[in-house]
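Ticket opened by: R.M.
Priority: normal
Category: complex prediction / small molecule

The reporter submitted a protein together with hydroxy diiron-OXO moiety and asked that the result be attached to this ticket for the collaborator who will pick it up next week. Submitted input follows.
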Amino acid sequence: MPSHFAIYTVYGGAKVINKKVEDILNAQINKEFYSAYLYLAMSAYFDEIGLKGFSNWTKVQAKEEVDHGMILFDYIIERDGNVDLRQIEAPEKNFENPSQIFDLILEHEKHVTDSIKCVAELSEDECDMATRHFINWYISEQVEEEATVSDVIKMLNMFGTENPILYHLDKELGKRLYKPHTYKN
Ligand code: OFO
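Result attached by the on-call engineer:
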């Protein structure tokens, strides 16, 4: 096959993905990688104050956030779109205590849920049903994330944040294992 034909096939064909949808998916990649940064900053803080289990929990979450970003990355490529990696903002790093951090996590995840809803809405408006279907995975993932974080907040509120309580909670959170997230899961 002549090389110019191969080049036309790759670059000259019509894009499968709608430009507006491509843009919002690229913005979402950035948000997922920002989330990973935020959880890593929290993990480092927990490690500094000696809460290894809390540090493990947030580090595992950071890895899952990278997976979320990569699933979007692969999806854009699969739809013959352009991946546009943007600057990642520095995360918050002035943390006060575990309760304040988990409140912050819940607030952050609610923002992410809102931004996923915007992806769903836009893909529907643009009649991109493939993306509308694809993003359902993220909608379910956000429900699970908010519920998990709320459970930790409830425990902190119910049992308090005295050292013996934190010691036990730290042991629990230390059990969280990383399981790679893939879209087909
Ligand atoms: Fe990617 O779910 Fe949290 O941010």
